[in-house]
Amino acid sequence: MCSNNEGGLTKFEPKPDLALFRKCLKCDKNSVVVTRINDAMCKECFVEYFTHKFRATIGKSKLFDKDEVVMFPYSSSDSSVAMLHLLFKGVGEEAKKKFTFKTICVYIEDNYVFESNSSTHERITFMENVKKSVEYSGFKFYYSLIENCLEPSKNIVSDEIAKLNLNNENKEKFLNLINSCKNQTSKEELLKRLKTQLINRIAIELKIKKIIFPVSCTNLTIDMLTNVALGKGAHLSIETSLEEKLSNGLVYVRPLRELTSKEIAFYNRYNNIDSNIMAKSSSLKNLPNSTIYRLTEKFINSLQNEYPTTVPTIFRTSDKLTPTDELCPEDSCMLCELPVDTIKKISANSSAINDLEYSLSISRLDNTAIEKLFVLKSVCYSCSVVLKDVGGHGNLPQTIKDKIKSRDNLKDKIKEFLIED
Amino acid sequence: MPVNCIRCNQNRAILKRPKTGDAMCKECFFFVFEEEIHKTITDAKLFKPGEKIGIGASGGKDSTVLAYVLKTLNERYNYGVELVLLSVDEGITGYRDDSLESVKRNQIEYNLPLKVITYEELYGWTMDEIVKKVGRKNNCTFCGVFRRQALDRGGLILGVNKLVTGHNADDIAETIFMNILRGDIGRLQRCTSITTGNEGAIPRCKPFKYTYEKEIVMYAYFKKLDYFSTECVYSPNAYRGNARMFIKDLEAIRARSIIDIIHSGEKLAVKKDAKLPIQGTCERCGYISSMNLCKACNLLEGLNKGLPKLGIGKTDRLRKQYNLSPAYSLNSSMANLSLKSSQLSLNSEKDCNCDCGENSEKSCSNQAKNSNNQLNNKLETIVDLNF
């Protein structure tokens, strides 16, 4: 299909050893890194630029009150490692203007849960190593396990690794749930949403309102395109914003969202904190083409290499979007906890949902089969697909099951006052 | 082991529907394929009785199936619309001439009137000639821009109420990604609507909006439709190729992705304060445009003045360099009003701002008159054509 302005972005023609012969943009030293498409910088100036950009993102929009406690879900990934270091420097002696908010970190172990032949001892050792790598920061650290998302009690987080409930029963229940998922993409998405739910519960448990996520601009871009491919377009602008207010009162903040993964990698290297990166790239060990997320990651990274304006352009696109007014804020999806996007507008008879429903009903004459395939109640479009891939909803966390029940009870109570259309 | 069709449970299934993954027999597949398009047409109220509908026919699989299905449905459900085929001949030897042959065969078989409109008569240039000037890079820009207008002009000549094109679900999903990748908010908002161009231009509809490309191919294959399937001889657009590959890979991982992407696109909303291009009209040809000069006029001016790079990418700098009237966005109309008047006075002094020099004033205006007459003549001769 051809259209006006066919051409895409400008292709980048790399010059050999671009940085080698150039002076730093800011001082007279020899440059070591090229950033923002074509700006050469020396090590010191780069670190200063990077730190400044992070602090400006936080400072600009006055995100945190004085002495406010914020929670940082640390994952020992490269962006986590960089953000911990930035926060550490922000409260250190050298900082010109110290951060006035207080940081509490939570580490959720999800690397070892999928390894059937690893012992509990290995898992503890791994967590002890993570603990050692973050001790320099001086922040208070809490620990939790990914399988705690199935734990109905409030006993989901502890400040001592030894006190965690590491029995195999929980781990098995969790593995059963994840492995009952027929599709690799759905598995990945389910895992992501369950982890987010756990983070939310921990924040509520610790009585913290704001959670800071270390998502880079690059990752945000990948998330964004993945969301489009997963049918989560309605939530695109919500999940990429700097500040996201959840229906349960929590607030997500993404202060790393203006920095690229390349810049983060250089920052970690220049500060000699590379060795703190311990997370595996994907805990499900998915190959590059096995899931939508992994495919999108590959797609963006290869485009970014050829066209260096790719990530910034997509990022700016996301900033111009807003949640559609067709969303119903009172009705949030029980898996991703975002507003449900399946409410049909009377004016929009022609829609992808209608079409899909019709396709399924016309090609399968057996009507009972259709029931299961339709969009689920109180679940958004995309999560409906995920939950359909989960075999047996009995494995789902009690918290989700409770939510369905309480909503139904609530609706029963006010039923007579509701006008059905 | 032979599988029975999920729908009739009698015949043996011969295909797996890409959209739903259901095993089906040939007859049931034809039925659901046509019914779904009928549903799209009625749900979106695409046609009204008595309307004249122009089908953009390239000879490729999408438009061939579109013409066939619309003719079938129009007879089956009494839409009461008059269908005409409209083809654009870009003048690409070894590609369009062959594909037009298959359009002509279809025209006879389906008994539908056909109008072929050529780049040569509209613009005075064939694509072959343009490629000679421009080279293989960027020539898709010319072709795409010119075709868009050509279809509209052809539609005007035929007096159609609506144009339908064979854009399928894969194309729309691809366009959603392209617009995100390019940061084109205005198009991102428009590209998922089933009917576009209600203001000014002839409305365009995409009855295949929810139809998978693979199903169109299957339909054409099992119906043994006569279509042309060769890639354009000029290099395809590399950047769009990336998006196309991505969609194909996504579909391979999860077949429903395509419809999920369209759902995503339908739920995207643009911030109210985001700057969107204003849709106005071109001051030369009156075609819909967000600049004072439309892209086609810009490109054409470049071709006619031997500056083929003129309309590609950022045009301002080049226009200034060659001392041409500025092309500005209609968004900044306030700032440019004064500029425009000053430019006008400048023009009246010289009476001509093309690159033929001040001395050849007379010959230049004559030339313009000539070419104008030429175009008028051509348009008249087209109007005279009747079926």
Automatic annotation (TrEMBL), chain A:
Q: Matching SUPFAM superfamilies, A to Z?
A: Adenine nucleotide alpha hydrolases-like
Q: What is its main location?
A: cytoplasm
Reading the lineage from the top rank, the first entry is Eukaryota
Query: Which controlled-vocabulary keywords does the entry list?
Result: Cytoplasm, tRNA processing
What is one cellular component GO term in this UniProt entry? Answer: cytosol
Cytoplasm is among the record's keywords: yes
Q: Does the record's keyword annotation contain Heme?
A: no
In the record, biological process GO terms are:
protein urmylation; tRNA wobble position uridine thiolation
Q: In which pathway does it act?
A: tRNA modification; 5-methoxycarbonylmethyl-2-thiouridine-tRNA biosynthesis
Kindly list the places in or outside the cell where this protein is found, as annotated in its UniProt entry.
Cytoplasm
Please list the GO terms describing molecular function: nucleotidyltransferase activity; sulfurtransferase activity; tRNA binding
Matching Gene3D superfamilies: HUPs
Tell me the HAMAP family matching this sequence: CTU2 (MF_03054)
Q: What does this protein do?
A: Plays a central role in 2-thiolation of mcm(5)S(2)U at tRNA wobble positions of tRNA(Lys), tRNA(Glu) and tRNA(Gln). May act by forming a heterodimer with NCS6/CTU1 that ligates sulfur from thiocarboxylated URM1 onto the uridine of tRNAs at wobble position.
Q: Could you say which protein family the record assigns here?
A: Belongs to the CTU2/NCS2 family.
The name this protein carries in UniProt is Cytoplasmic tRNA 2-thiolation protein 2
- From what organism does this protein derive? Brachionus calyciflorus
- Which taxonomic lineage does the organism of this UniProt entry have? Eukaryota, Metazoa, Spiralia, Gnathifera, Rotifera
Automatic annotation (TrEMBL), chain B:
Instruction: Give yes or no: UniProt keyword Transport.
Output: no
Task: Identify the residues that the record assigns to the Cytoplasmic tRNA 2-thiolation protein 1 C-terminal domain, covering every copy.
Answer: 280-310
Which enzyme class, named as a word? transferase
- Pathway in which the depicted protein is active: tRNA modification; 5-methoxycarbonylmethyl-2-thiouridine-tRNA biosynthesis
Q: Which range is the signal sequence, renumbered to this chain?
A: none
Entries under PROSITE patterns matching the protein:
UPF0021 (PS01263)
Domain tRNA(Ile)-lysidine/2-thiocytidine synthase N-terminal positions: 53-232
A Pfam family annotated for this chain is ATP_bind_3
> Could you give a single Gene Ontology term from the biological process aspect?
tRNA wobble position uridine thiolation
E.C. numbers: 2.7.7.-
Q: Which CDD domains match?
A: CTU1-like
Q: Does the keyword Transmembrane helix apply?
A: no
InterPro entries registered for this protein in UniProt: CTU1-like_ATP-bd, CTU1_C, Ncs6/Tuc1/Ctu1, Rossmann-like_a/b/a_fold, TilS/TtcA_N, UPF0021_CS
**Keywords, sorted A to Z:** Cytoplasm, RNA-binding, Transferase, tRNA processing, tRNA-binding
Where is it localised?
A: Cytoplasm
Q: Which GO terms describe its molecular function?
A: nucleotidyltransferase activity; tRNA binding
CC terms in the record's Gene Ontology section:
cytosolic tRNA wobble base thiouridylase complex; mitochondrion
Give the protein's biological function.
Plays a central role in 2-thiolation of mcm(5)S(2)U at tRNA wobble positions of tRNA(Lys), tRNA(Glu) and tRNA(Gln). Directly binds tRNAs and probably acts by catalyzing adenylation of tRNAs, an intermediate required for 2-thiolation. It is unclear whether it acts as a sulfurtransferase that transfers sulfur from thiocarboxylated URM1 onto the uridine of tRNAs at wobble position.
What PANTHER family does UniProt report for this protein, alphabetically?
ATPASES OF THE PP SUPERFAMILY-RELATED, CYTOPLASMIC TRNA 2-THIOLATION PROTEIN 1
Family the entry assigns: Belongs to the TtcA family. CTU1/NCS6/ATPBD3 subfamily.
Q: What is this protein called?
A: Cytoplasmic tRNA 2-thiolation protein 1
Its source organism is Brachionus calyciflorus
